[in-house]
Amino acid sequence: MRMEFWKKTVDDIYCDNPPQQPVALELWKAVKRHNLTKRWLMKIIDEREKNLDDRAYRNIQELENYAENTQSSLLYLTLEILGVKDLHADHAASHIGKAQGIVTCLRATPYHGSRRRVFLPMDICMLHGVSQEDFVRKSQDKNVRDVIYDVAGQAHLHLKHARSFQKSVPVRAFPAFLQTVALEDYLKKIQQVDFDIFHPSLQRKNTLLPLSLYIQSWRKGY
Question: What is the CATH number of domain 49-218?
Fold first, then answer.
């Protein structure tokens, strides 16, 4: 019902007839002000609707597709708000969105495991002989860490690809990509603990993250 509400709401927004609901009204204003593409909003809703059963991803491609249709779509909308229409920026947004989706899945693994749920790609788990029960038991065995290594490595690869476009991406697009600072910070921390996804240090906030964001913003990079 919630998904159907938002589908109809987005349709109504693009017909200039938004429902009298605070979020919908603000979204309507943003659509009018920045001429936002309806397709990206619908992709977010459709992808979330497909994943309402909250099952594990069958493979890394499924996780990347989910991230592309949700996280990357948000970045495409952000670029539109910034007035950026550039193919290189779109490519960077695609890779950063995928990296964000993968890192979010990793970060949430301890939380989901405590509720006996695991969403990490099943193909990578099977490759290393790891069961869902291993994550529920918070196993620190090498094969469990190998799963995390492979998944984190894919996120790192997407960040690397995104940054390969940096010289071609318009500077005004960089604010949309500052989340790379937080993504890289997490990937470095998980490497430092030898890919032990349950290490307590991974649950602690980095108090220097705002400073890192400021510095990256000042450097005009991502």
Answer: 1.10.600.10
